[in-house]
Design brief:
The structure is a homodimer of 316-residue chains. Helices cover 32% and strands 24% of the residues of chain A. The first copy, chain A, is an alpha+beta fold and 316 residues long. In chain A, the strands form three sheets. A seven-stranded mixed sheet of chain A has the order 8-10-7-11-9-12-13, with helices on both faces. In chain A, strands 2-3-6-4-5 form a five-stranded mixed sheet. A two-stranded antiparallel sheet of chain A has the order 1-14. In chain A, helix 2 packs parallel to helix 6 and helix 4 packs across helix 5. Chain A is globular. At the A-B interface, helix 1, strand 3, strand 4, helix 3 and strand 5 of A face helix 1, strand 3, strand 4, helix 3 and strand 5 of B.
């Protein structure tokens, strides 16, 4: 590994960590949305960890402390959804600024939102930690189960597969735009999509049960996350259509993160059965958006290359 | 719950979270060093989460990025040790300041130390996350197993139990003092105790197998952590002796955190067997330091009250 330039992207840092520390770090670590761990005495669990940082992922001028807690747990749960796992429990590490001597304390506001998201998703909070820090950081670890079945990986897409997404995209990004413009009411559906996103846990389980080949959640943007799925699978894709949510732009649908819709692939012959299983679970039908191709550098939307856009940190 | 004053201690915030959010947060959450979670399909795992924050828990002027990574993983593993659990895997969430454009990147230095601690403790890293933040924060979740047996709780101490500690205390605090004074060499054993502490995983397993009643790790100071064990158990204690490490002061032994020695209690009739099992495992013999009493407000060192001293955040 060569000496890296300052200011790497998140994906580059993760790749550097994987390549330089291969000996001490598990081979599958940092590769999928979540990892599957064998439990001594039987069974296995799916685990993932995710941080929400004030001023980076969230702005307390645009959402309440309880929204931050909700978003932190749901964002982590979305990683379970992307593996087809049901939640078993979560742990929450809070870092709270010393200066935030609010009443009620900031930590309680955040944890109230965590508790609401926990109740809404049937995921008990089983542990936690509280520290002082310069800014609010909420780190959540989620534990899940795939009922003894294999999780749905990012890397399983095959040429000829149909690519589907569980719903129209761009709602969260559009809601953030409205909040920034001061144009969002409290119950507004787009701003709610930003402040109170919902992990597609049931849809993920249905995809796993239906034998879906590959899956990822749209956390950093449909384009970037679909590129990641194709990278992991060593395949290309040709998209024919992008479902844009009402009130959102195509740009927001492609590049906006935190929608937590699921993108999945399945054999062309299995699409009808998948649709039936979504219907049987009273879930909206997933939307076909294109096909997987064998040529790994072919990444098309219509006739054009799909720009690898989306939200990534630049890190030191 | 009344309206709290600004500037709570960590224990007060945890208690407030527990009392106000009882509905959404599991009853046992935040109570022990780690929680035991039943895994669908059989078995159970012990889980804990812990953050290390630059400028709060560690100072990069006194230790290397790799030391921070090592300390973060070992501190979390110590929570498993305190339950009598063996490590199964760990997840690491890094928050890295944007300004830290060092070469090699700060994130890689931290993860190198994480990997060294993982190798030293036989704990594979199974997942991770990287974010940007104002300061370095390393949050580690550890997963462990108690081989189908019940974990050793904080709350199991009984009147008449003997209190023991796995080794002399104060080494880490003395090492930090030497580092601050610029008096520590690289291989100095006290500064190593601070920069590279070791979780007492084998000792914890022996205590569990020997049927120890209660256990906690010395993460925030022998005094504070022993008070916490007594609080959880609803008992008091009379200490006769405090084992002070060579080069440390009594103050450092009582109030210095991060030694990661284990404090445990066991029936008076079981002490000899416990000693034999430590000896059979080639571990140094635990040191008796006093007895558990029925009177919950009796917290004595010799004739004097043992001050509840130790390291706690004050939080907003």
């Amino acid at each position: 590994v060569g000496s890296p330039k300052p200011g790497h992207t998140e994906d580059e840092i993760v790749e550097l960590i994987r390549r330089t520390l291969g000996g001490g770090i598990g081979e599958s670590a940092l590769r999928d949305d979540a990892a599957s761990v064998a439990v001594p005495g039987g069974g296995s669990i799916v685990v993932s960890i995710d941080s929400v940082v004030e001023g980076v992922h969230v702005d307390l001028a645009l959402c309440r402390p309880s929204d931050v807690g909700w978003k932190a747990l749901m964002g982590a749960l979305s990683d379970l959804a992307a593996m087809g796992a049901r939640p078993v429990g979560a742990l929450v590490a809070l870092c709270v600024p010393e200066s935030a001597q609010s009443d009620p304390p900031l930590a309680l506001g955040v944890m109230a939102g965590v508790a609401e998201a926990a109740a809404a998703s049937g995921c008990p909070i089983v542990g936690g930690d509280v520290s002082r820090a310069a800014q609010l950081v909420v780190t959540v670890t989620v534990l899940g189960s795939t009922d003894g079945e294999a999780p749905v990986p990012r890397s399983g897409a095959r040429p000829g597969d149909v690519v589907l997404v569980t719903g129209p995209c761009g709602r969260s990004a559009a809601g953030l735009r409205q909040l920034r413009a001061g144009m969002a009411g409290d119950g507004d559906s787009l701003s709610l999509a930003y402040r109170r996103p919902v992990a597609r846990l049931e849809a993920g389980v249905v995809v796993r049960q239906a034998g879906g080949h590959a899956m990822i959640d749209v956390s950093d943007g449909l384009s970037l996350d679909l590129h990641r799925l194709a990278d992991a699978s060593g395949v290309g894709f040709r998209l024919t259509d992008i479902p844009v949510a009402d009130g959102a732009t195509l740009e927001e649908a492609l590049g906006g993160g935190e929608d937590y819709e699921l993108v999945l692939t399945t054999g062309a012959a299995d699409v009808d059965r998948l649709m039936e299983q979504f219907s049987a679970a009273a879930l909206p039908p997933p939307i076909p958006i294109g096909v997987i191709t064998a040529q790994a550098d072919q990444r098309l939307l219509g006739p054009d290359d799909l720009v690898r856009r989306g939200w990534q940190h630049r890190l030191g």
